[in-house]
Amino acid sequence: MFIDHVKIYVKAGDGGNGCISFHREKYVAKGGPDGGDGGKGGNIVLVVDTGDNTLLKYKYKRKFVAQNGGDGKPGKFHGATAEDLVLPVPPGTVIKDPETDLVIKDLSDPGETFVLCRGGRGGWGNQHFATPTRQIPRFAKSGTKGQEREVILELKMLADVGLVGLPNVGKSSILSRISEARPKIANYHFTTLSPNLGVVKTGDGRGFVAADIPGLIEGASEGAGLGHAFLRHVDRCRLILHVVDISCCEGRDPIEDIKLINKELAQYSTELSSRPQIVLANKADSMPEDFDKKAFERFVRSNGWQLMYLSAVTGENLAEMVKLVDSMLERLPSMTRYESEMSTEEVITASDDRSVEITKENGVYVVEAEWLYNLMGSINFDDRESLMYFQRVLRNNKVIEALEAAGCGDGDTVSIYDFEFDFVK
């Protein structure tokens, strides 16, 4: 089964919590704090796997969560750092944001890796909070949450050349004759239900990759037939081989067929429709005597396209066509790569964001923020020093200032994740 478009949910591991511990040893009355730090959560990493050519493994499992970091332990032992969760994708996979459809990353090079979500940092153990005036810190930091998001994985095949055309014009037959690819071939429409890749050897260890793109009919760019699903695979092609049936066995006009396909290419992407084309007039061995070659050639050349008559059945002009394609590719720019359209800050939500959301409910000022949620787990509200630390964090991160701006005054009640206190300026 060929799958080339999936949406998945990924979440990096949370950081481990810092440990609250004090050194205990015979004859050592006051050993001091020795709580270890929490370990880092695992990242979500995408890696290009050249052995894959489909996103099938993501069709049924679409939620991927990395392991959390280990909690710190007594004796200044650091919590275990979690392993990264590595997700293999085929070459040519483009990662997109589902809300904006902007490109996050184009993964095309063999072995290329990309950290999609970063694991949370481990929290500090109480050993870090010891000072000359605070020798018994009874609090530690919680680990931060790992980043999470939904993304779209979209496969755009890495092919130099794309064979396009209406169904049953001979695209698969041509690909099977010029490469080692063995696509399904039959004399009915939509025989080919997924793109096929073939490596075409041109000698001296050189060659190019050709893709048979199925499903292009009228309305393909709007979702008709199979075209909407597979037009994306023409995106990277440097050269388009436009196959047209000149046997006219189905009563079609080859000129109108060419116009129809190019209209669909243009509606999908104006840049795509401007790519160089070679019109392959296939089934030349069955060309009817009344076929108007002059009008056909005049139309093709008026659009600036190359023209070649050939037959996938007899092999007529196939070798010459391969030579022409090879020579044209030498002069054309390299394959399309999609630049990231989102900055790193947009792609991976910055954990250093200290903004807060304040609402007033039944006279109580409710303060919410993800960083505050993480902070609450590290506060020992029964310990005076820990409460003083909490107050300093609120003031240094302008939470007190934001409360005043929201209208909070002395004596008003403030709630931060079920911890309530009276506001005092």
What does the model show?
This protein is of the alpha/beta class and 425 residues long. The strands form 4 sheets. It has a 6-stranded mixed beta sheet with strand order 10-11-9-12-13-14, with helices on both faces. It has a 5-stranded mixed beta sheet with strand order 3-1-8-5-6, with no helix packed on it. It has a 4-stranded mixed beta sheet with strand order 15-16-17-18. The longest helix is centred in the middle third of the chain and has 15 residues. The chain is elongated. About 2% of the residues have low confidence.
Please name the defining characteristics of this protein.
23% strand, single chain
SSE blueprint and pairings:
Elements lengths: L4 E7 L32 E5 L14 E3 L19 E5 L3 E4 L6 E5 L5 E5 L30 E8 L5 E4 L6 H8 L17 E8 L2 E7 L14 H4 L8 E7 L8 H15 L1 H4 L3 E6 L10 H10 L3 E4 L8 H14 L12 H4 L9 E5 L2 E5 L1 H7 L7 H13 L2 H7 L7 E4 L2 E4 L3
Question: Strands across the major sheet, in which order?
Answer: 10-11-9-12-13-14
Residues in helix, %: 10-25%
The biggest sheet, with number of strands, parallel, antiparallel or mixed sense and barrel status, is: 6 strands, mixed
User: β content, as a range?
Assistant: 15-25%
Instruction: List unreliable stretches of 5+ residues.
Output: 188-192, 223-227
The shape, in one word, is elongated
Compute the number of strand runs.
18
Distance between the termini: 65 Å
